[in-house]
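Here is one chain, start to finish.
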Amino acid sequence: MSQDPWLQNYDATCRLAQETAENIHERNRQQRTGGNPAKINMTLRASLQKLKQNISQLREGLLRASSSRRLMQPEADRRQNLIDDLLTREKQLNATFKGDFMEPESSRSTLMGAGTSGGGGVAAANPWLVNESEETRGLTFGEIKQQQQRIIEVQDEGLDALAAVISRQKIMGQEIGNELEEQNEIIDDISHLVDKTDDRIRNETRRVKLVETKSASCGMLVVIVLLLIAIVVIAAWPV
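Its structure:
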């Protein structure tokens, strides 16, 4: 799995800060020994400007990742702490470059990123984390990168599991949609049958009314015929 681009940019920024600290130390050494630091000053100005731009890019990248919820909150907070530490280091480097911040022997090892003892040098554990968390205290950059890689792998596994759940939910949604379409077709068929039955009932109702009307007319005719017969009989009956 390839490393997170944000972490790669962070490592590059840390290396730039390390190189800048070494150049500041070399510039100060030249000033103490009467050398001409003009050339290294130009390099330092460019490096400090680049350092500022890199930190700004890290902040923008973290903001985009946090806004799009690609990072879990603990990891976003940890990266924000790393940026804050870099900002503190950048201010110290600027102050040292301008001469506002003296470079005593005790802080020189911090700026240089290494402590010396006799003729041998020992690499500092992690010189750029001023307020280092307990999780990374005493770890080298390589170990921190490995730790970050493990965190990213865990996040990737969580995202894969979430993607699988979402995929299952999508399939279930499609199946429910298909079932609803079938139910709607059944309801449409039932509605059509109900309409046809209703039309038949109306037709039969009209026929019944027509039969009732005809029946009433026939009854009146029978009564009239009977009355006529009665009149004729009475008229023909001798008195």
